[in-house]
Design goal:
Blueprint: E1 9-11, E2 21-27, H1 38-41, H2 44-51, E3 56-62, E4 83-91, H3 96-103, E5 109-112, E6 117-119, H4 126-137, H5 142-149, E7 158-161, H6 168-174, E8 175-184, E9 193-200, E10 203-209, E11 212-221, E12 226-229, E13 236-240, E14 248-252, H7 256-270, E15 276-278, E16 299-301, E17 326-328, E18 349-351, E19 372-374, E20 395-397, E21 418-420, E22 428-430, H8 431-436, E23 442-444, E24 452-454, E25 466-468, E26 476-479, E27 487-489, E28 497-501, E29 507-509, E30 518-521, E31 529-531, E32 552-554, H9 565-570, E33 576-578, E34 598-600, H10 613-616, E35 622-624, E36 648-650, H11 660-663, E37 672-674, H12 685-688, E38 696-698, E39 719-721, E40 741-743, E41 764-766, H13 777-782, E42 788-791, E43 809-816, E44 825-830, E45 839-845, H14 851-868, H15 874-888, H16 892-895, E46 897-907, E47 916-923, E48 927-932, E49 935-938, H17 949-957, E50 978-979, E51 992-997, E52 1002-1008, H18 1010-1015, H19 1018-1028, H20 1031-1044, E53 1051-1058, H21 1073-1076, E54 1098-1099, H22 1114-1117, E55 1149-1150, E56 1153-1154, E57 1169-1170, E58 1203-1206, ...
Parallel strand pairs: 3-7, 15-16, 16-17, 17-18, 18-19, 19-20, 20-21, 21-23, 22-24, 23-25, 25-27, 26-28, 27-29, 28-30, 29-31, 31-32, 32-33, 33-34, 34-35, 35-36, 36-37, 37-38, 38-39, 39-40, 40-41, 41-42, 42-58
Antiparallel strand pairs: 1-2, 2-4, 3-4, 5-6, 5-7, 8-9, 8-14, 9-10, 10-11, 12-13, 13-14, 43-53, 44-45, 45-46, 46-47, 46-50, 47-51, 48-49, 48-52, 52-53, 54-69, 55-56, 57-59, 60-63, 61-62, 63-64, 65-66, 67-68
């Protein structure tokens, strides 16, 4: 039971010089958990045959007796039925016809991305299809393509079936039929009889003969009718049609399941007001035959199928629907226009989008009733003149075709009021052409490559009111002759000048250009909204001040030195003024009772604000003056009584002191207050108590030593951020009923006074970077329910020792949720990756999904390490790392995706003394910035449609529909992502790769997601990190600044400090053992009290450990991701201290473990590795089965249902948890006996989130080295745990099949961690002394 049958070989007759072999084996649907490796699938004969030609390969054929999309998770996944998987060896020239002939099959089917299933044409070649798919993804090496084609994980992207897969749910929604007891009419005159009953479309069909459809068929239209339960009979339904001549049928079902299925489907039909049948996305080739009985059908949706043009049930039969008004056959790969559609004279709406159409036949002129015609996403370059005969046509969609000019036939279509031609190839527009089309009101010509708009005649174009010219190549635009223009969109061009008529102008959107001035005449008195952001304006045009109805004015990112006084004195309607990122030195006085509601003045040079700002702008609710030079703020009123309605106030990055606290009291409606990175020494206690409605408070980056106890008066406070201060006492905020997030990292906390119970609302607590903080076991128990708890891992260190100084780079990172409920950003950070002091860092942004970033965080380091074994070419191994990670996402990557950025610091050559290089690869919008000599160097490329014209053109060529917000199919603005494979070939996983040699001028590296760099410029990010220096605190500051600048999304930032030069060598000269001896540091209180007889039992639990040495600052070890110091414990015998070596001069390696001497026969402990803790995981998918209820509790592990982030130091192999005192020093070290290393009672710590999994009594030979954990043995699962490979499954499957829980992460170990120390046997002590001289 549960054992697969042995392999057997079927040799099929040769086809020319090719031969086919088939191997069959019962496998699970995913084909990855129980699938054998490729080496064991084939024998030597088959492998030799494959190696002979890269055009040979393997096609995996799945059976069709199961649902093509298996369950992704849950307990039922393990008991799903199995399917036959046939591995067919063939070549790229082998056709479907040949494969079917060898197998006696009827046909083959292909499924892309777990979506629709299509029957393959006999001439199609399956293996060539796979090769083409892999090549389009980005694979270039033919040998690698051949190898990837045989990988079972590829089935989540492209899968072949020998039979059409059966989807029960799809069949239910398409057609229900069976033989049941039926009675006609409500009276007892008719008797019950067994009849064939069919529910298809909008009708109930009852045959007149049992088990046969011959003879008369009784049709009962159900739209507007009723379906009711008959209580007198079990499992009986009454079906009634609508109208005065209503008919009724009673149907008695055999089982409850049938009853419920028919009731559910019939209820949907009777609830409709019109006769609509939706058969979209059903992989249909023909229309169900029973559907033609529905003669009342008026709306038919066949979108996203594979409809045939000829044969029974094909589109040729559609004219049989005599009352059909609306027909949608878009996305059907038709290739040609179905001429039979021209015979459906009742049509009023026809959608033929995305069908690879090149021409429209003249039969289109027969549809005289047609009102809407959608032809988007085809290859049309002209239209027939007969189209002009459709007098009732009022909507014509021609977007994303190949038109080079506006079709002249539009002059005849007098009812069409909108020209929808986005995404075509119209490079020149003549206004005289539009003048002849007097019926057009709305013109959409975005994404056309438009270079000029010509106005050869002074004839006015008076009928056009809306014009969209976004994302073109215009350098100037004169629309003065379009005299009735109301709305103009011309963003993202190259406009240097803009001239408009102001007679009717209401909305002007001209951002992201090069405008120095805008000419509008006459003054647009109807103008309400104007966007001139991201231009080169040095002054505001004078006519703007005369616009009496303007409500929204966006002038951000210009070169303005001042605002005209008349702007704020004359305006009676201005509600929103955005002037951030300019050069303003003052703000003019305001008009009394100005209706201003939002004012953004950030990133200017303001030293003061108008005195009457708050009591003149009584409607002001939002004010952002961050990043200025303010030393004070104006009073809220002229008297003690304040009428302020201010709700959001951002004062970050100024020169404010504690005196501003008294001026904030008047804003009693304040909900959000950001006053970070100022000069506050304190915050007046009496003033804080007045802000009772405060919900979010950010006091970071000041010099506060305490937060007033009156903060407890802010009963609505849910977020308190006060990192990077000098706070010594934990504030009294744990009694607040709505508190959710508390960030007190990088302070000087020593203890926490807690109430008897904590609020259930508390979700995140960050206490990292508090070097003197000690937590008792009772405190940790109180924190047990917190979803995300971030604490430092502290270690005992000898005086003057810090392992952190022996690496060339250290990192820190920060993540913030913003106003979202979940965190969709993850960070990978490994300071010691592989050998020779290399490093690996990455950031992954899922936008609105958290699953894909987590999976990439857990797997991408491993994949990179594997790829490095196959190639040393940067573009090859980085590209393959991304493509393999894309494949390993499996089913999770079909519909979900993420931006990804990976940085790999490595040696330029394999020689030990060579320099370092930085290789960066990315897809999506995550970016990497290198600070070189104080200047930012961009290493990544932003793959968004707005930022890359090449990517925009590629997506257009592939006929994607790009919505008005520049998103592919309305889903994502990125043209390259990991995941989202269903958007292929528009969205690809192939990365941008860049390699930069590192030098002494390179100071640090900044990684960030889109939200960070949208708000913080490259140069400001560099200045910020230079001012802070500590990576952890710098990353915190970057995220805080982005929030204060207005970001509401998830923010992620990582800072990597670089020291690459011989001058920064951190090697220590060798010293004798006697010189190292000193007093043992006393351990601090720990969560689990160690045995007195165990002097080396140093705590490794969360936030618990010995004091840091004086050389190790809190900020140096306060990183959320592995910026930790080394543990050293006193030995019980003579020992020499390990010589500290830097990454430029690494110590020799033995069996993958860094050792401190040349003699291979001595016993060496594993040197601690600097490893990252996890990115903040949300708790809704925390359980992967390892912490389920049926697992035995692990000794020394607190499994409390919450997540605990820990800063941990990790041995090369493991550290031990011993309940009692060791019998000898060898029990504290990794032993090497007879050339075989072993561990006893060891616990492996994940490099991802500090989660633990006990591995007791296992030999190291049984464990697999996990690259992403940097010399850790074992397989890291989706929650960061490390297990032996024989106990692990495919990482994607485990993540997807894990039971969904709201908690369940392992916490830190409650035992103490032994130190890392080199033990020298007595017999070798003299030899060591001689070598160290």
């Amino acid at each position: 039971q549960g054992v697969s049958p042995p392999w057997f070989l079927v040799l099929l007759f040769p086809i020319g010089e090719r031969a086919l072999w088939t191997r069959c084996r019962n496998m699970k649907r995913n084909g990855s958990r129980s699938c054998a490796t490729r080496r064991t699938r084939f024998g030597s004969r088959e492998r030799d045959w494959l190696k002979g030609d890269t055009q040979r390969g393997c096609v995996c054929l799945y059976g069709g007796a199961v649902d093509p999309q298996p369950p992704a998770s849950g307990p039922q996944a393990s008991s799903t039925p199995q399917t036959d998987l046939q591995l067919v060896l063939c070549s790229t020239s082998t056709s479907v016809e040949e494969l079917c002939a060898q197998r006696n099959g009827q046909g083959l089917y292909v499924q892309l991305h777990g979506d629709l299933v299509r029957r393959l044409d006999p001439s199609e070649r399956p293996l060539q299809m796979v090769y083409d798919y892999l090549t389009s993804m980005g694979y270039a090496d033919p040998v690698r393509v051949q190898d990837e084609a045989a990988n079972s994980d590829l089935s989540c992207m492209i899968r072949f079936y020998s039979e059409r897969p059966v989807n029960a749910d799809q069949q239910e929604r398409t057609l229900l039929k069976g033989v049941f007891s039926v009675r006609k009419g409500k009276t007892q005159l008719h008797k019950w009889a067994e009849r064939q009953v069919i529910l298809c479309g909008t009708c109930l069909i009852v045959a007149s003969v049992k088990d046969s459809l011959a003879g008369k068929m009784h049709i009962l239209p159900l739209v507007g009718g009723k379906v009711e339960e008959v209580k007198r009979r079990q499992h009986c339904l009454m079906f009634s049609s609508a109208g005065s001549q209503a008919q009724t049928y009673f149907v008695n079902f055999d089982t409850l399941a049938d009853y419920q299925r028919w009731h559910r489907q019939a209820s949907k039909v009777v609830s409709q007001t019109v006769s609509v049948v939706d058969l979209s996305c059903y992989s249909l080739e023909t229309v169900p035959e029973y559907l033609f009985y529905c003669q009342d059908l008026t709306h038919l949706n066949l979108r996203h199928n594979f409809m045939r043009l000829q044969g029974p049930g094909s589109l040729l039969n559609l004219p049989r629907f005599s009352q059909l008004k609306s027909l949608n056959i878009s996305h059907n790969r038709l290739g040609v226009f179905p001429e039979c559609v021209g015979e459906i004279l009742s049509l009023t709406e026809l959608n033929l989008s995305c069908n690879n159409l090149h021409t429209i036949p003249v039969q289109i002129g027969n549809l005289q009733s047609l009102q809407t015609l959608c032809l988007d996403g085809n290859h049309l370059s002209s239209l027939p003149e007969e189209l002009g005969d459709l007098s009732q046509l009022n909507s014509l969609g021609l977007s994303f075709n190949n038109f080079s000019h506006v079709p002249t036939v539009l002059e005849k279509l007098c009812a069409v009021d909108k020209l929808a031609m986005a995404g075509n190839r119209v490079e020149s527009l003549e206004l005289s052409t539009l003048a002849r089309m007097i019926h057009l009101r709305n013109i959409d010509l975005r994404l056309n490559g438009l270079r000029c708009v010509k106005c050869e005649t002074p004839e006015p174009v008076s009928h056009v009111t809306q014009l969209d010219l976004r994302d073109n190549c215009l350098d100037s635009l004169d629309l003065s002759t379009v005299c009735n223009l109301e709305t103009l969109h011309c963003q993202r061009n190259q406009l240097g000048s803009l001239t408009l008529s102001g007679f009717s102008l209401r909305m002007l959107h001209a951002g992201s250009n090069r405008l120095t001035t805008v000419n509008v005449y006459p003054v647009p008195n109807q103008l309400t909204h104007m966007d001139l952001s991201q231009n080169l304006l040095e002054y505001l045009p004078a006519w703007v001040c005369d616009c009496r109805k303007i409500e929204i004015l966006d002038l951000q990112h210009n070169l303005l030195f001042e605002l005209p006084s008349r702007l704020l004195l004359n305006s009676l309607s201005l509600r929103k003024l955005l002037t951030g990122n300019n050069r303003l030195q003052r703000v003019p006085d305001l008009l009394d009772h100005i209706p201003l509601e939002a004012l953004d003045l950030q990133h200017n040079k303001l030293s003061e604000l108008p005195e009457g700002l708050f009591y003149k702008a009584l409607n002001l609710k939002y004010l952002n003056v961050s990043a200025n030079a303010l030393e004070s703020i104006p009073p809220s009123s002229q008297s003690e009584e304040s009428l302020s309605t201010l709700q959001e106030l951002y004062l970050t990055g100024n020169n404010l002191n504690e005196n501003c606290g008294a001026l904030l009291v008047g804003h009693q409606n304040l909900r959000i207050l950001h006053i970070a990175y100022n000069q506050l020494l304190s915050f007046p206690a009496s003033k804080l108590s007045k802000l009772e409605l405060l919900e979010e408070l950010n006091l970071s980056g000041n010099k506060l030593k305490t937060i007033p106890s009156t903060v407890s008066s802010c009963k609505r406070l849910h977020t308190l951020i006060a990192h990077s201060n000098q706070i010594t006492v934990f504030p009294e905020i744990l009694n607040l009923p709505e508190i959710k997030l508390v960030d007190l990292s990088c302070n000087e906390l020593t203890e926490i006074q807690l109430p008897d119970s904590l609020p259930a609302t508390l979700q995140e607590l960050d206490l990292t970077g508090n070097s003197s903080l000690t937590l008792e076991h009772k405190t940790l128990n109180l924190f047990s329910h917190i979803t995300t708890l971030k604490l430092d891992q502290k270690s005992a260190a000898m005086p003057g020792d810090s392992l952190g100084s022996s690496t060339l780079w250290k990192h820190g990172y920060s993540e913030m949720r913003g106003q979202r409920n979940k965190l969709c950003v993850s960070v990978l950070a490994v300071d010691r990756f592989g050998d020779g002091g290399e490093g690996c860092y990455g950031i992954f942004d899922g936008d609105r999904n958290e699953e894909v970033p987590r999976l990439l965080q857990c797997t991408m380091g491993d994949v990179l390490c594997e790829e490095l074994q196959h190639s040393c070419v940067d573009t090859v191994y980085m590209c393959n790392t991304f493509l393999t990670s894309h494949r390993k996402l499996g089913m999770a990557g079909q519909k979900l995706g993420a931006s990804a950025l990976l940085c790999y610091i490595h040696r330029e050559t394999s020689e030990p003394g060579s320099g370092f290089s930085l290789t960066v690869a990315n897809v999506g919008t995550c970016q990497a910035i290198l600070c070189r000599d104080g200047r930012p160097v961009q290493l990544s490329k932003v793959f968004s449609l707005e930022n890359s014209t090449e990517e925009m053109e590629r997506v257009k060529v592939n006929k994607a529909i790009i919505t008005e917000d520049n998103k592919v199919s309305g889903v994502t603005c990125c043209s390259r992502l990991l995941g989202c494979s269903y958007l292929s070939p528009w969205v690809l996983p192939k990365p941008w790769v860049c390699t930069e040699p590192l030098c002494a001028k390179d100071e640090f590296l900044i990684l960030g997601n889109r939200a960070l760099f949208e708000r913080v410029s490259y140069q400001e990010a560099v200045y910020t990190v230079q001012a802070v220096r500590d990576p952890h605190a710098a990353a915190k500051k970057l995220c805080s600044l982005a929030q204060s600048y207005g970001c509401k999304d998830n923010i992620g930032a990582a800072v990597v400090s670089l020291r690459v030069s011989e001058d920064s060598c951190t090697c220590e000269p060798p010293v004798l053992n006697d010189e190292l001896r000193g007093p043992t540091p006393a351990p601090v209180p720990v969560s689990v009290t160690p045995c007195p007889s165990d002097p080396g039992n140093i705590s490794s639990s969360s936030g618990i450990g010995t004091e840091f040495s004086s050389e190790t600052s809190a900020s140096e070890v306060g990183s959320e991701a592995g910026s930790t110091a080394s543990d050293e414990h006193p030995s019980s015998g003579p020992a020499s201290r390990p010589e500290r070596r830097c990454s430029l001069h690494p110590a020799p390696a033995l069996c993958g473990i860094m050792v401190q001497g040349p003699a291979p026969t001595r016993t060496h402990p594993g040197v601690f590795q600097r490893q990252p803790s996890s990115a903040t995981f949300s708790s809704n998918q925390s359980d992967n089965g390892l912490d389920s209820d049926d697992e035995a509790p692990l000794e020394g592990v607190i499994s409390n249902g919450s997540k605990l982030e820990v800063e941990v130091d990790i041995h090369c192999c493991a550290f031990q948890l011993r309940p009692g005192a060791p019998e000898s020093p060898k029990e504290l070290n990794l032993e090497n006996r007879n050339g075989k290393m072993r561990r006893q009672n060891s616990v492996v710590v994940s490099a991802t989130n500090g989660c633990l999994l006990a591995v007791c009594g296992r030999e190291n030979g049984d464990l697999k080295k996990s690259p992403s954990t940097s010399s850790l043995f074992g397989k890291k699962l989706s929650n960061g745990s490390v297990v032996a490979p024989e106990d692990s499954h495919n990482i994607i499957e485990v993540a997807l099949e894990a039971p969904k829980k709201k908690s369940g992460y392992f916490t830190a170990p409650a035992q103490q961690d032994p130190e890392d120390q080199l033990i020298v046997p007595p017999g070798l002590e003299q030899e060591v002394r001689e070598q160290l001289k």
